[in-house]
Design goal:
The complex is a heterotrimer of chains A (139), B (496) and C (349). With 496 residues, chain B is mainly α. Chain B has helices at 7-25, 31-38, 42-45, 47-64, 66-71, 81-92, 96-129, 134-145, 147-151, 155-169, 192-195, 201-219, 248-263, 270-283, 295-319, 325-336, 345-348, 350-378, 386-404, 409-427, 432-456, 461-464, 467-495; strands at residues 172-173, 184-185. The radius of gyration of chain B is 22 Å and the shape is globular. By secondary structure, chain C is an alpha/beta fold. Chain C is 45% helix and 18% strand. The chains are: A mainly alpha (139), B mainly alpha (496), C alpha/beta (349).
């Protein structure tokens, strides 16, 4: 084996070796895509306008927003009763109901009733299961 | 040994398998979690009974993952990712039931073959496995990574997506417990508090496959129906054993690969089904059908991940070293009872060893029987209206993400981040399948690559280390050549 | 949306109302306690020790304690966030060794947290060589280093696994200044990586444990996996408390031959270096001291009864209860010793 192929890895900086290689390859491939697909990329503004125009904004952004609120409130609320998982339970019931009725096409009583039933029983059952028999930590 | 086979012993296996299947089938819950939860109970059960329960959970948990993978396109566990590639398209064609039956049969075959290998060759195979140094392990991972090319519909973008997956997997610290130096990289300033541990696999997975799919449906206004027809509607939906004709080699090879990946400590369970799938595609006569609903793809994936179960027990029972994250927990079950696991385990504890083999056998048969009977109940999932199913799935994903590392809220945010990323990726035409494979294999690829150079100090070591390395290079070359030929063919087909 | 917001507001105010009496009465451990540990493994020794203690404590006090294997850095974060006593932590010497070795995510625990009682020792930390190694003992290894032979030691850097290696270097320095340069680290990860490093002939000595490696010392001649112990770092007094039958086919008396004083790795030319992996509680620094007293008292009563010792010994742990104040003084003295060792050899790493 020639000296040409020899490498010395310094342990203290070895965390950078692989990320550097991967970043390099990623940049090269990105460049290749940029060159090959330049037309498609140039037209991306129009593409995104189309996506936004076709989007069911209420359902999409609503789901996203509800998820965001759901995740954000779970821990602060759960902190009132530490280690009981109540934050999860208290947030999940309205989340499942709100998301369910948002995604549903019909919002009359007949359609909302099953959603309400699931949003009460589902999270409660899961909370009970994880807190008592499975003894796991929930927010 | 037969005095150990009590009604309690048998019912623990069957009960464990059932609970395992349920855990595997719920997106976000995994076999590892099921075993972790039940580990403390085993202290009072005694060693053999405790192991019966845990092995049932293990086999059930690995198998249950195929249900949501096929019916919803959401892998129930990381090892069933490759099952979604062909299983979900089959469901969309109205062949969901057939896909389920294929998956369950292949799981049984994989489980039994690996069990046989475990029973007959455990110590010998362990001696072979320790011939795999950093170099050979890196090549195995590299070989698994070549499946990225085969899975891409556009090779350039597919490989880009896969490398991006590796890149994202490296964010955080260079893990000390894997041999790294514990230093941070690729973490933007100000985010160290959250990102120092990097992104965990499970939340990334359920974000990419679960939340992203929900967002996509919301975006297009929740059209009625699941996009999949009733699971029996398709013309070719009837399942017969005949479908396995000509697939014997595939089944054997996939089970063997799964077993072998399990035997190699540190390569990781998810690599088993990925490698099996990529091999099945490389050697198939119809590689272009993979990813479009090819039964052979499901067989490879499921035989591969169930093959893991027996394999991962080999290093555990003959070296005291776990083959994957679930068997790592089994060590706890042994030490709780004050039993040493190591090279002398089988010889010192023949009764326990036989009981374990028997428990695995029963667990595999019970898994098959229960899942086969339950197919029509699984199918009910598809009849639940989406606006009720989706919020509940999301809630389960939250639980899965939060509990996978025992209560870390950042894992829940990871779920959201990757849900959004998954939605965005399809818009940008990035490919999710190669991305997740890169993400799964990235950390091992890094450690074994860097450690190879660190220990041997020469780049040529990758070619000269051993005959095993040479064999692996041949496989890597075949896989890459196969992908290139396939993409050429595909290109010509679309041109004309 | 309205409904959601209203529900949440209502829930939050209700919560604040209910929480009030709970906060004013926080003189003792709450009903639901989360015990975070410094390891992410639920199969490892930290988890097992913590589970044994948590169960005993929960039974004794009639409360719920959940053990969460979140790992060192997340455990410290969780502990820092919560001073109400709803989050407690158990970890071992890694908590200050990580700081001494300058690892990321480790602060000085003596300055930033309250040190609680110690509960147990894992006496297993050991060093091994291949069965066919020319070195039979630590004496051979240190002599080889003196003679200019390079000795490669596989460890996981930055903590419990490295401290014995640092001690070897220090002993070499005390015996023959300069010879410590010949003892070099091979940085690996888990136990399986360390074993593999030996089998790949990348290391001459590996860090291991009595529990995980004993069976490898019992393999017949000609088995390439064979190993032999050269050093067990535990104190003589600790190992004496282990069951007389020892571990596997190695009796306690045989194990004692590899520990001080029979096997000497000197600290300063007079005393031997020893290391016991001790498990202890860590608390939020602002937690009510009354809770610490409550835990101290409860543990004293539990150890008085004697059942917990049986469980600990059954899993090859040594019972080791010291109330908070004594534990802190003991661990600080231990830390000072190791700080000196690390400082002495730091020039030559």
């Amino acid at each position: 084996m020639g000296t040409f192929t020899r490498v010395t890895i310094d342990f203290d900086t070895s965390h950078l070796l692989f990320p550097t290689i991967v970043s390099g390859v990623l940049a090269l491939l990105g460049l290749a895509i940029l060159i090959r697909d330049r037309r498609r990329i140039a037209g991306s503004a129009a593409y995104w306008r189309g996506v936004l125009a076709r989007m069911d904004k209420m359902r999409f952004l609503g789901t996203l927003g509800l998820t965001l609120v759901y995740f954000s409130l779970m821990v602060p609320i759960g902190d009132f009763w530490p280690n009981t998982g109540l934050g999860f339970l208290i947030c999940s019931v309205p989340f499942v109901f709100a998301t369910g009725s948002l995604l549903s096409h019909d919002r009359d009583l007949k359609s909302l009733l099953p959603i309400a039933a699931i949003s009460l029983t589902g999270p409660t059952f899961v909370w009970w299961l994880f807190t008592y028999p499975l003894f796991l930590t929930l927010p | 040994m037969f005095e150990l086979v009590t009604p309690l012993f048998l019912s623990l296996i069957v009960g464990g398998t059932l609970v395992g299947i349920i855990f595997g089938a719920i997106p976000g819950m995994t076999a590892t979690m099921a075993v972790a939860i039940c580990l403390p109970i085993t202290y009072s059960l005694g060693l053999e009974n405790g192991l019966a329960l845990l092995l049932g959970l293990y086999v059930g948990g690995i198998s249950g993952g195929l249900v949501p993978a096929i019916l919803l396109g959401i892998p129930g566990t990381p090892s069933s990712i490759t099952t979604t590639f062909d299983g979900y398209p089959m469901s969309k064609k109205g062949e969901g039931e057939k896909a389920l039956r294929i998956g369950i049969c292949a799981s049984l075959v994989g489980g039994l073959i690996s069990l046989l290998i475990l029973f007959l060759f455990a110590p010998t195979l362990a001696d072979f496995a320790i011939k795999f140094s950093y170099v050979e392990k890196f090549l195995i991972i590299f070989f698994a990574l070549t499946v990225m090319a085969a899975l891409s519909s556009d090779m350039l973008i597919g490989i880009f997506s896969g490398i991006l997956g590796i890149f994202v997997s490296l964010i955080g610290t260079y893990d000390i417990s894997k041999g790294g130096n514990g230093e941070l990289r690729l973490v933007p300033e100000g985010t160290e508090y959250w990102l120092e541990g990097g992104f965990s696999l499970l939340p990334v997975l359920i974000g990419l496959f679960g939340l992203a799919a929900i967002l996509e449906q919301a975006e297009i206004g929740m059209p009625k129906g699941h996009g999949i027809k009733d699971i029996k509607v398709g013309k070719k939906s009837t399942f017969s054993i005949g479908i396995f004709k000509g697939q014997l080699i595939n089944l054997l090879r996939s089970s063997g690969i799964g077993t072998f990946v399990g035997i190699l400590p540190g390569v990781g369970g998810s690599a088993a089904s990925i490698l099996a799938y990529s091999n099945a595609k490389t050697f198939s006569r119809n590689p272009e059908r993979f990813g479009e609903g090819e039964p052979a793809g499901i067989m490879a994936s499921e035989a591969g991940n169930n093959g893991l179960t027996g394999g991962a027990l080999v290093p555990l029972l003959s070296l005291g070293i776990p083959g994957d994250s679930t068997t790592a927990l089994l060590i706890g079950a042994f030490t709780l009872q004050g039993i040493q696991v190591g090279p002398l385990f089988i010889g010192n504890n023949p009764d326990t060893w036989n009981a374990m083999i028997f428990a695995m056998l029963v667990a595999n048969l019970a898994m098959f029987a229960m899942m086969y009977v339950a197919i029509r109940y699984f199918a009910l999932v598809v009849t639940i209206p989406k606006h009720i199913l989706f919020p509940v799935i999301l809630m389960m994903c939250v639980i899965g993400a939060y509990t996978i590392n025992y209560g870390i809220m950042f894992d829940v945010w990871t779920l959201l981040i990757f849900g959004l990323f998954g939605w965005l990726a399809t818009k940008l035409r990035l490919e999710v399948a190669p991305f997740i494979i890169g993400f799964i294999l990235g950390p091992s690829a890094e450690v074994y690559f860097v450690k190879s150079l660190e220990s041997f100090g020469d780049v040529t070591i990758f070619f000269t280390k051993s005959w095993i390395a040479v064999v692996l290079w041949v496989l890597i070359a075949a896989s890459i050549a196969g992908s290139i030929i396939l993409s050429k063919k595909h290109g010509e087909a679309t041109d004309t | 949306m309205k409904l959601t917001r209203r529900t949440i507001l209502a829930a939050a105010s209700l919560a604040a109302f209910i929480a009030q009496p709970m906060m004013s009465a926080a003189q003792e451990l709450p009903r639901n306690v989360r015990l975070v540990i410094g390891s992410t493994s639920t199969g490892g020794d930290t988890y097992q020790n913590s589970a044994i203690v948590a169960e005993a404590l929960a039974d004794h006090l009639g409360i719920n304690i959940k053990v969460d294997a979140v790992g060192a850095s997340e455990a410290f974060k969780a502990l820092k966030r919560d001073s109400r006593g709803t989050t407690l932590m158990i970890f071992h010497d890694q908590s200050y060794l990580g700081h001494l070795y300058g690892r990321r995510g480790y602060e000085d625990p003596f300055a930033n947290y309250a040190i609680g009682p110690t509960v147990a020792i894992n006496p297993g930390n050991a060093y091994l060589v291949p069965a066919n190694s020319p070195h039979e003992s630590m004496e051979d290894i240190l002599k080889a280093a003196e003679a200019g032979e390079r000795v490669r030691v596989a460890i996981q850097p930055g903590g419990v696994s490295e401290i014995g290696f640092s001690a070897m270097k220090n002993a070499a320095r005390v015996r023959a200044p300069g010879s410590e340069e010949n003892i070099v680290a091979v940085n690996t990860g888990s136990q399986s990586d360390k074993n593999q490093a030996m089998w790949d002939n990348l290391a001459d000595v590996i860090n291991g444990s009595i529990q995980a490696n004993e069976q490898f010392t019992q393999l017949g001649d000609g088995d390439a996996k064979g190993m032999k112990f050269v050093w067990i770092t535990a104190r003589d007094a600790t190992l004496q408390q282990a069951p007389a039958e020892g571990m596997g086919n190695t009796t306690r008396d045989q194990l004692l031959k590899f520990a001080s004083p029979a096997t000497s790795v000197t600290l300063d030319g007079e005393q031997d270096f020893t290391f016991d992996k001790e498990f202890f509680f860590l608390f939020n620094p602002d937690m009510d001291p009354a809770i610490i007293d409550q835990i101290d008292t409860a543990l004293a009563e539990i150890f008085e009864k004697g059942d917990i010792q049986k469980r600990q010994k059954g899993s090859f742990f040594i019972p080791n209860f010291l109330p908070s104040k004594e534990a802190k003084a003991h661990l600080e003295a231990k830390r000072d010793t190791y700080r000196n060792v690390i400082a002495e050899i730091s020039g030559s790493k």
